[in-house]
Amino acid sequence: MKRTKIIPHLVSGILKGVIPFGFLLLLAFPAVLRAKQQEDFDQYKLRLDTVWFFSSPSGYIQGTKTGDSATIDFQKDLGFNSYSTFGGKIDWKFTRKNHFYVVINPFYTSHQTTLNRTFTFQGTVFNAGLVAQSDLHAFLVAPGYQYDFVRRKRGHFGIGVQVDLFNSSANISATGMVNGFQTSVSASGSLLAPIPVGGPDFRLYLTNSPRLFVEGNVFGMYFGGYGNYVSTADALGVKLAKHISATFGYQLASRLTVNNNNSSNRVGLRLTQKGAIAGLEFSF
Q1: What is the pTM of this model?
Q2: Closest Cα to residue 122, out of 175, 185, 64?
Q3: Residue 6 CB-half CA count within 13 A
Q4: What is the rounded CA–CA span in Å between residue 281 and residue 215?
Q5: Range of the domain at 273
Q6: Do 23 and 102 lie in a common domain?
Q7: 61 and 116 part of one domain
Q8: How far apart are CA 91 and CA 162, in angstroms?
Q9: What is the dihedral of CA 191, 194, 196, 200, to 10 degrees?
Q10: pLDDT score, position 18
Q11: Structural domain count, the chain
């Protein structure tokens, strides 16, 4: 009889503990579900973007020496063609809407051609008919900050500001016969231009999963007589694995103009880069 009485008491005690616990789970489950539903597809703390860029450079460079009035065209005078380069971006999203990042883009190209006209660069005369070797280096480092004014589960819209630090240099060397004599000439010029720029950045996921997305940005600034800068790039992204996505797109324009005022010693430069881009994105 005693054993028979103990069992109902034991069952009653278990039910008294289980029922409140189950009730709490029922109350908590909708909140957990809502939090899961509201979690951003674009969830990360640190992101590394690696980009391959097939660039078609155009523009000109102008020397600084007295009498250098002509501009040297990268394509018409020096014969620069399309080439491949690589770049990257490190993005630290330290809160849900705030980012610090650094962009690195090196542009190195070299070409040999026979000059079809005479021009002067850095006080040196390069005569038509000489065989010229030209090297153009334009290294960009851009630290920046971005704030996402709109951030939802399926994407964001933000504004970024950054300082583009352009370290550019051009070297031209040429050899050949001039008036029956063997001639060899060379000249080089450089430019370090810090340019603050800003503009919008967005990403939109096209499905109800983080599988497919589009993204783009526009950065620019105008500096009156000093120069200007504008760039825009758009891409389609595909998630390959939990932490890896692939992107494919086109950089419509990346144009830097730094004017050569007579009162300064800086090299005048106009460099436009445009072409296809592709890359891998690693998010953690």
Answers
A1: 0.78
A2: 64
A3: 3
A4: 13
A5: 44-283
A6: no
A7: yes
A8: 13
A9: 60
A10: 42
A11: 2
